[in-house]
Amino acid sequence: MSLEIENLVMRFGGVVAVNDVSLNVKPGMIRGLIGPNGSGKTTIFNVVSGYYKPTSGKVSFDGKVISGLPAHQITALGFARTFQNMRLFKTMTVLDNVLVAMGHHCKTNLWQAMLNPVAVQREDKMLTEKALHLLSLFQIADYARERATSLPYGHQRRVEMARALATDPKIVLFDEPAAGLNEKETEWLSETLLKIRDSGITIFLVEHDMKLVMGICDAVSVLDYGKKIAEGDTKTVSTDPVVIEAYLGKEEDL
Amino acid sequence: MKNTFKVILLGVGALVLLVFPLVAPNRYTVHIVNMAGIWILMSLGLNLAMGYCGQINLALGAFWGVGAYTAALLNTRFGSPIWINMPLGMILAGITGALIALPMLKVRSHYLALVTIGLAETINIIMVNEIWLTEGPLGISAIEMPELFGIPIDGAERFFYLVLICVVIGYLVARQIVNHRIGRAFIAIRDDETAARAMGVNVARYQVLANALAGVYCGVAGVLYAHMSTYISPDIFEFKNALFVLTMTMVGGMGSLAGSLVGGLALPLTQEWLRAIKSWQLVGFGLAIMIVVLFMPGGVVGLTQKIEQAGGIRLPWARKQTEGKPVAEEKLEMEGPNVA
């Protein structure tokens, strides 16, 4: 069930956003993906989750090539993702946000929706219970009936994570989940990510918060200008001179 | 307490509707209300496609025409009755809706509006030019008034009940759809297509479905119209009607089925009262759209909800928070496919 990215190239016109990157995410691990702004991290996420077709190279999951499949099919294969800018459904309640992600649990079709309100009601009740349980794991069940975007920022992040998990994923791609969170919230986040991993869900994490990354990742890959410049466990990576140079620049002799 | 009030309100409403044709001042009034019912059906269709799924669709006049021409041709050429014409009209108009949705998958916002206008015009031109099929600009006359279970539905008063049944069924079906997973997927697509994809929503499929549903609703309206007026011609189904439906839906409340009922009833009646200033009607619609967009983005229904929130009161007919809610201007500024 591992995710394999092989020789991935993503070009936008003349810009090479991802340049020949290969990496894998093994089941049950937290793989961090770090690098300065614009180094191609989110582009890799967008390829993996089906928003971009790679210029060349391939992405496979569990031995099956998934690059080029539409996003909803990739989700159906067990992928979920969060977004840098969250993208909650802005007119929906917290509960409905989660329910949208549970579409695969819905067995009733259009005809039943129109002709069999009893079956739909039964299904709705079942799904709502499931969704509320999920929300309670994120301690936001009390806000279930409120408009998702009216919640405080930290809680919106929780809604987004709950929504991603509602798709029943095998692997979740978190795109900067700590962005905008305070220290306490980040601490909660790192505990939660570990809990998610321990429940058997693989995590692929893009994050700028180095304390978080170094604290929870089992392995880290580093990108710079679209190229992978380093890889390994957190200790190796954080002491790698190439990585330090990419982040801080090289000391010049004056 | 609140529930009893609701029941009473519903009961009184039902009673008023049932006796309306008997107490109406004249047949013409009933006819106008029947026409309003037909508009309501189209408005419900537009609301599903545009209010819920976020797909601008200005081809409604054409869907309506497809339904009407199906009924008219089948009836005048083969003498087929309304209960056969109705499902066929629904299917054909639904297919038209789905077909129009295909190019819609590639374009967005203003371009989408233009594409739907273009397609509607094309269908209208076919109605005018393909004389062998449609009788051309002269139109089709002598369509029979329907007969159901041996009862001839021959006057506006009797037709009223047929329209009423269609509107009630249409509304209930639409309500079932928007409260179902399908409705949630529609709203998800409207709110954020990119996120909807990531949640496993097959966006293209739901967009086609939404427009097919709009087609089906207009198809019902078309079949009813053909059998009610007994005469149809291409100019009836011109673009201006799509604009009329758009206006009534926006005034009533985009993204709220009750909005379709309110707008679909209010606008045709207002139009009737303002018959004297006919040439100014279009100006009036334009102004109405502008006022709604600027000052009451949720339409009349949205406004009542705003009053509720501001005053902390619950109007007796208010819906639960979890049900579909009218959206503000968000809907109108649909984003491009930026993934960041």
Nearest-integer average pLDDT of chain B: 83
Text of the CATH class of the largest domain in chain A: Alpha Beta
Assembly state (oligomeric): heterodimer
Main sheet summary of chain B: 2 strands, antiparallel
Low-confidence parts of chain B: 318-340
Low-confidence stretches of chain A: none
Q: Classify the beta-strand content of chain B into a percent band.
A: under 5%
Biggest interface, which chains?
A-B, 44 and 33 residues
| Span of the ends, CA to CA of chain A | 51 Å
The CATH topology of the largest domain in chain A comes to Rossmann fold
Over the alpha carbons, how many angstroms does the gyration radius of chain B reach?
Answer: 20 Å
* Strand coverage percent of chain A: 15-25%
Distance between the termini of chain B: 50 Å
The largest beta-sheet of chain B arranges its strands as 1-2
Structural class of chain B: mainly alpha
Count of DSSP helices of chain B?
A: 14
The count of β-strands of chain B is 2
- Backbone shape of chain A: globular
Helix-strand layout with pairing:
The complex is a heterodimer of chains A (254) and B (340).
Chain A: E1 3-12, E2 15-25, E3 30-34, H1 41-48, E4 56-61, E5 64-65, H2 71-76, E6 79-81, H3 94-100, H4 110-115, H5 117-137, H6 153-165, E7 171-175, H7 183-198, E8 202-206, H8 210-216, E9 219-224, E10 227-232, H9 234-239, H10 241-248
Parallel strand pairs in A: 3-8, 3-9, 6-7, 7-8
Antiparallel strand pairs in A: 1-2, 1-4, 4-5, 9-10
Chain B: H1 2-23, H2 27-52, H3 60-78, H4 82-104, H5 109-129, H6 131-134, E1 147-148, E2 151-152, H7 156-179, H8 181-191, H9 193-198, H10 203-229, H11 239-252, H12 257-273, H13 281-295, H14 299-311
Antiparallel strand pairs in B: 1-2
